[in-house]
Amino acid sequence: MRNPRARNRSLESGRPASCLPDPVGAGRIGSVHARNLPGMVPTGSLLIYDADPAVAGKAAAEVDGSVRPTAEAVLADTDALVVATSATDRLPLLDTAMARGIPVFCEKPLAAGLPEARHIAATARRLSARVLVGFQRRFDPEYLMLHRLVASGAAGQVLMIRGTAFDRTLPSEGYSSTAGDPFTDCLIHDIDATR
Question: How do strand 131-133 and strand 104-106 relate by DSSP bridges?
Answer without folding.
Answer: parallel
